[in-house]
């Protein structure tokens, strides 16, 4: 089955549950992408010049439009992704909440503030502020076509940039709707524009006259984006794949952990980059946890009926990935306690719970992006941490524990971890979102997300004549001597301490902390 009709000049988006065409869009070539970027460049000065208060007012009006017309936008999301209408509204609501945070916090995060000048240049005042880059390109995914790209779009706008957005070829209508809704607020400026197409359109955006590119998608495509952007030395933010783990300690609330694992693994038909794909459970509670999770997995199903909690696989080619990972796990000795290869059909994948799966299987090492989850037992939390950190991805994760949750969370090699909940970090606007390893780099959301779309501007001002002028050819030998004497007084004691053996210095720090 084709997911869309590919032609040189038009793109058809389809309902993945039925195959019906739900939208037809003109494809943007290199010339039209460049034209969109040029329009964005022409509006960038006006947008930056509004200042924080002016931009907050515009973003607030846009937020109100999104809120009032949430159901309409959810209809578009539902039509192009197949996800339940209520789930579409959930991601839109989270995006709206992030917009509110941006409007209220941008000036505090990015505005000019004074910093210490230090003793050597005490006659100077020093300040730093974060200035907009200009035009930001955004390439978004199809699985959360509102919330995920808005993590880049809204924060780039809040920082004072204009945006050119290429949505996924599977969800072009959502991207057009978002741009049109902002144009209703500011009709005479090009703050957010959408360009439509396949990989060629994305490559054209990467090579266009933009100041930064934010990408969300697979690790493989992220590497291609970086290569294209490198031609113009355009910096990038990469939010790529994940293989997130949920750890369950022996003293965890098992009912809550099973409920979180079910949502993390199966919601949005498992098509979530920060979804739960692996669970490591203490051997003392493994059997009970598997029973609870299995009960919850059997209670949900994918379909188009009124009781269906899961929609179709939006990108139907992913069905083959799900089938291959399940088959490989079973062939290597794993067991399916819920589902198996047979629940995967032409459009829908039903929940699958696998146990006793070897750690080198595809279902453990590669991103599945479907409603399957591997639950393996561990002898202790150190083993759970080791297995979690063994993979090449490092996006998010979760820990359920009565006593040791934060301690375990800090040891996980990932950008984000929730304790006694799942995916909570994505919904908190003040927290940065992003990963390490093959999950990418850079951050959206929070203060880090605002700064990601700016450059730091440092300014110094001499307030009085220096007692010791170090930046002149008229500097004397006496002044050089005074400079060395001053440095010795300021930092010499630290160099004496550094002569102590490293072990003694580390122990001294520990002793001070305990004291």
Task: Outline the structure in words.
- This protein is an alpha/beta fold.
- It folds into 3 domains: 199 residues, Aldehyde Dehydrogenase, Chain A, domain 1; 185 residues, Aldehyde Dehydrogenase, Chain A, domain 2; 39 residues, no CATH class.
- 44% of the residues lie in helices and 18% in strands.
- The chain has 18 helices and 21 strands.
- The N terminus is likely disordered.
- Belongs to the aldehyde dehydrogenase family.
- One of its GO terms (molecular function) is oxidoreductase activity, acting on the aldehyde or oxo group of donors, NAD or NADP as acceptor.
Describe how the helices and strands are arranged.
Elements: E1 5-6, E2 10-14, E3 21-26, H1 30-49, H2 51-68, H3 70-81, H4 85-110, E4 113-115, E5 124-132, E6 135-139, H5 147-158, E7 162-166, H6 172-185, E8 192-194, H7 199-207, E9 212-216, H8 219-230, E10 236-239, E11 245-248, H9 254-266, E12 278-282, H10 286-298, H11 318-331, E13 335-338, E14 352-355, H12 362-365, E15 372-378, H13 381-389, E16 393-394, E17 397-400, H14 405-410, E18 418-419, H15 424-427, E19 436-437, E20 440-441, H16 446-452, E21 454-462, H17 477-497, H18 502-514
Parallel strand pairs: 6-7, 6-9, 7-8, 9-10, 11-12, 11-17, 12-15, 14-15, 17-18
Antiparallel strand pairs: 1-2, 2-3, 4-5, 5-21, 10-20, 13-14, 16-19
């Amino acid at each position: 089955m084709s997911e869309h009709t590919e032609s040189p000049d038009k793109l058809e988006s389809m309902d993945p549950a039925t195959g019906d065409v739900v939208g037809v869009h003109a494809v943007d070539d290199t010339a039209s992408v460049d034209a969109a970027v040029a329009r964005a460049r022409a509006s960038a000065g006006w947008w930056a010049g509004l200042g924080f208060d002016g931009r907050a007012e515009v973003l607030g009006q846009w937020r109100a439009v999104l809120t009032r017309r949430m159901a309409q936008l959810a209809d578009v999301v539902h039509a192009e992704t197949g996800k339940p209408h209520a789930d579409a509204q959930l991601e839109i609501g989270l995006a709206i909440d992030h917009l509110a945070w941006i409007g209220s916090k941008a000036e505090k995060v990015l505005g000019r503030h004074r910093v210490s000048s230090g003793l050597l240049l005490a006659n100077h005042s020093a300040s730093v502020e974060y200035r907009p880059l200009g035009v930001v390109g955004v390439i978004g995914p199809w699985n959360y076509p509102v919330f995920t790209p808005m993590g880049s779009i809204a924060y780039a706008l809040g920082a004072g940039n204009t945006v050119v957005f290429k949505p996924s070829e599977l969800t072009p209508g959502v991207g057009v709707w978002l741009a049109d809704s902002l144009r209703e607020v500011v009709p005479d400026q090009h703050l957010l524009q959408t360009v439509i197409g396949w990989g060629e359109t994305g490559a054209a955006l990467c090579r266009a006259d933009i100041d930064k590119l934010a990408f969300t998608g697979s690790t493989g495509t992220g590497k291609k984006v970086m290569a294209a952007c490198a031609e113009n030395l355009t910096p990038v933010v990469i939010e790529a794949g994940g293989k997130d783990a949920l750890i369950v300690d022996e003293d965890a609330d098992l009912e809550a952990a099973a409920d979180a694992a079910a949502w993390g693994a199966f919601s949005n038909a498992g098509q979530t980059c920060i979804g739960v794909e692996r669970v490591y459970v203490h051997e003392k509670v493994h059997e009970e946890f598997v029973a609870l999770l299995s009960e919850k997995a059997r209670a949900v199903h994918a379909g188009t009926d009124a009781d269906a909690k899961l929609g179709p696989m939006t990108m139907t080619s992913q069905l083959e990935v799900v089938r291959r990972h399940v088959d490989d796990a079973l062939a290597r000795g794993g067991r399916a306690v819920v589902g198996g290869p047979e629940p995967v059909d032409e459009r829908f994948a039903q929940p699958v719970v696998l146990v006793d799966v070897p750690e080198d299987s595809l279902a453990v090492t590669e991103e599945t992006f479907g409603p399957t989850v591997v639950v393996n037992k561990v002898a202790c939390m150190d083993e759970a941490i080791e297995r979690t950190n063994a993979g090449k991805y490092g996006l998010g994760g979760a820990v359920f524990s009565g006593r040791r949750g934060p301690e375990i969370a800090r040891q996980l090699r990932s950008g984000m971890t929730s304790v006694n909940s799942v995916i909570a970090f994505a919904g908190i606007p003040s927290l940065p979102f992003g990963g390490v390893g093959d999950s990418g780099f850079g951050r959206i959301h929070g203060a880090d997300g605002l700064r990601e779309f700016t450059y730091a501007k440092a300014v110094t001002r001499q307030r009085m004549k220096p007692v010791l002028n170090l930046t002149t050819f008229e500097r004397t030998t006496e002044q050089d001597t005074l400079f060395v004497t001053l440095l010795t007084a300021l930092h010499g004691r630290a160099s004496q301490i550094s002569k102590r053996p490293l072990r003694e210095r580390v122990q001294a720090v520990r002793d001070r902390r305990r004291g």
